[in-house]
Amino acid sequence: MASVTSLSDTVQQQLASAISAVRPEAAADPLLRRSDRADYQANGILALAKKAKANPRELAAEVVARVTTGDVIKDIEVSGPGFLNITIADEAIIRNLAARYADEAGRLGVPYAEHPGTTVIDYAQPNVAKEMHVGHLRSAVIGDSVAKLLEFTGENVIRRHHIGDWGTQFGMLIQYLDEHPHELDHKEAEVTGEEAMSNLDRLYKAARKLFDSDEDFKTRARRRVVDLQAGDPHTLRMWQKFVDESKIYFFSVFEKLDMEIRDEDIVGESGYNDMLAETCRLLEESGVAVRSEGALCVFFDDIKGPDGKPVPLIVQKSDGGFGYAATDLSAIRDRVFNLKANSLIYVVDARQSLHFKMVFETARRAGWLNDDVKAYQLAFGTVLGKDGKPFKTREGETVRLVDLLDEAIERASAVVREKAQDLSEEEIAERGAQVGIGAVKYADLSTSANRDYKFDLDQMVSLNGDTSVYLQYAYARIRSILRKAPEDARPAAHPELPLHEAERALGLHVDAFAETVAEAAREYAPHKLAAYLYQLASLYTAFYDKCPVLKAQSPEQVANRLFLCDVTAATLRQGMALLGIRTPERL
Ligand code: ARG
């Protein structure tokens, strides 16, 4: 557990202290960034000069005079209107990477957050007795990565899968099952996810048909809803059968997605049933919610319907029933007061943004959320087909997630097979799944969540371009070089060697892993990590083209380049793992 100060942080600190030595009254940010002209460029002097009414070039020169060059900064000079161009010493780059390399596996010297908190993240929330679709894919993939990123920074992360397991539709299902008691009995002990879903689907259709055609059944079904909410034991047992059957299906999909979902983290809508009445009472007593036409409502100045009338959040319907909002408000109370969260994240479709806006505002008025306890909807956009329209089958139906994943795996297996040199059939199948699922996840994670994206399998499994396959191949290629290295050529850092431009660029980018992870975690933005990894693979390719590794000039240079290969591979591997994507050793 040795966290490493990044080169950019070291430079940043040195510049900041030089600036405050020159202008003690000003706390100026040097505004450091990577640059094409030098390793880093600092633009902060311009703003400082403006504030101090000084000549920026002169001020820059004064700052430069205060910076000690040597260990880390090899060269610093004024450029343009008052920028600072900074060049890092080769030696410092290799020393820094060596320190990262020496850290425990995968940590790469990335520091933990100074003040970690507790975050509850609500993601991967399919609905009981229903198929999962691409929307559930996005929530699962984005949520899983954000949870991993936060955990990596030391945050205490609590996962909540708010599955849709409650509501009026269960009255119909339970009543039907009660009248056809053997429909969910399993003859064999083991039921596959596919079978479970097809059982549920069959039941759902049959129940629906009866519900729509038979008035008496409808009445009986409605009475069941009341029994369910009242906690009637027999009704609950029936309901549990649906939940259990659905979980078999959910877990099979999550497994296909190569995603670990724990049963204890599944707390569906039903889990808050006991809190609903109290939530309403608290809101009504505090005046946050008011009775309007029998319903308990919360009103907002800025939320109006097309007719100009205010649209309220309904917490309790006029018939006494509780809906989605009451459940979410109760979940907030649970997460804040029982789980002691400081941050609540909801990875949910952007089409539910109005709902969350109203729910969060209501919770703020009630005092459950405030400046110290915040809620955020990580809203994601729609998955589009190649034609740019919401993703549908040719028949216009929503695409089943499993079909989509199977197709991705199939396509990826074909790619793997074509390139495979010495892989067995079994290995091809395993890699095919890792590449196919990786492709789907990466396509989702490499654009910012709030944007819509096109689901295009051809593009996703392409070996060229910004795809996970490209990154996985880059990783496998590095591993193969390391395997091929002779016994006496082991990766070892040699800071005394001068570096090639391509080595420097690669090294500086590896160093930036820590700040990238911190930024991606802070902003809940896995796409920033994806962009970083893509660039890492590209810089590695450039390095590999220009710098012979095993045929380098001296044994020291061979060792140093193998070391660069190894630390790059470790960074790629860890970065991909934070996106939930595997990096096979051989492809
Ligand atoms: N089950 C819902 C759906 O499929 C998503 C639940 C989102 N989470 C929440 N706390 N409301 O749309």
Automatic annotation (TrEMBL):
Keywords per UniProt: Aminoacyl-tRNA synthetase, ATP-binding, Cytoplasm, Ligase, Nucleotide-binding, Protein biosynthesis
CDD domains referenced in this protein's UniProt entry, alphabetically: Anticodon_Ia_Arg (cd07956), ArgRS_core (cd00671)
Catalytic function, reaction form: tRNA(Arg) + L-arginine + ATP = L-arginyl-tRNA(Arg) + AMP + diphosphate
Record bears the keyword Ribonucleoprotein: no
InterPro entries (alphabetical): aa-tRNA-synth_I_CS, Arg-tRNA-ligase, Arg-tRNA-synth_N, Arg-tRNA-synth_N_sf, ArgRS_core, DALR_anticod-bd, Rossmann-like_a/b/a_fold, tRNAsynth_Ia_anticodon-bd
Pfam families to which the protein is assigned, alphabetical: Arg_tRNA_synt_N (PF03485), DALR_1 (PF05746), tRNA-synt_1d (PF00750)
Broad class of the protein's primary localization: cytoplasm
Superkingdom classification of source: Bacteria
Domain Arginyl tRNA synthetase N-terminal: 9-88
EC numbers, comma separated: 6.1.1.19
Subcellular location: Cytoplasm
Single GO MF descriptor: arginine-tRNA ligase activity
Broadest EC class assigned to this enzyme: ligase
Residue ranges of domain DALR anticodon binding in the record: 471-587
Residue ranges of the motif 'HIGH' region: 126-136
Quaternary context: Monomer.
Family, per entry: Belongs to the class-I aminoacyl-tRNA synthetase family.
Protein's UniProt name: Arginine--tRNA ligase
Organism: Streptomyces composti
